[in-house]
Amino acid sequence: MNIAFCSKGCDSESELDERFGRADFFLIYNRENDSYTPVENRAKEAKGGAGALAVQQLVDNKVSVVIAPEAGPQAIEALKKFNISIYSQKGAKTVQEALELWSQGKLDPIEEPGNKGLHRV
């Protein structure tokens, strides 16, 4: 199973990004081999629809779960279409903290869009 985190950096101690579609990186954790792969978010510079474009990148990387601050309407719709679960990163500051909280079942699923698709660059 691959879990993606919205990240500002390329390792588990990286700070979480406050954006989904315009996050700097997706740090993808592979649970089977306990490894991280940083993926630069190609959608972050998109003129519009960054959330949906970011979801496609997650699909391409076989992500099953994403930990994010929130997601807009297009992103939520795309995540549901591809059966990718999304959880709030809650109060976590780093990727490692968010992974620990998720592993303990302490992160809440995101069911509804949070930012209504507003662009926050």
Characteristic terms for this protein:
121 residues; alpha/beta; Nucleotidyltransferase, domain 5; five-stranded mixed beta sheet; disordered C terminus
How would you explain this protein's 3D organization?
The chain is 24% helix and 23% strand. The protein has 121 residues and is an alpha/beta fold. It has one domain (2-103): 2-Layer Sandwich (Nucleotidyltransferase, domain 5), CATH 3.30.420. The chain has a 5-stranded mixed beta sheet, sandwiched between helices. A hairpin with a 4-residue loop joins strand 2 (25-30) and strand 3. Helix 1 packs parallel to helix 2.
Give a quick summary of the entry.
It is built from three helices and five strands. By secondary structure, it is α/β, with parallel strands linked by helices. Residues 117-121 have low confidence and may be disordered.
Helical content (DSSP H or I, runs of 4+) = 10-25%
CATH superfamily: Dinitrogenase iron-molybdenum cofactor biosynthesis domain
* Total E-strand runs: 5
Low confidence ranges? 117-121
CATH architecture: 2-Layer Sandwich
The CATH topology name reads Nucleotidyltransferase, domain 5
What count of helical segments does DSSP give? 3
Q: Over all CA atoms, what is the radius of gyration?
A: 13 Å
The quaternary organization reads as single chain
- Tell me the name of the CATH class: Alpha Beta
Average of per-residue pLDDT values = 92
User: Helix- and strand-based class?
Assistant: alpha/beta
Count of separate structural domains: 1
Q: Please outline the major beta sheet.
A: 5 strands, mixed
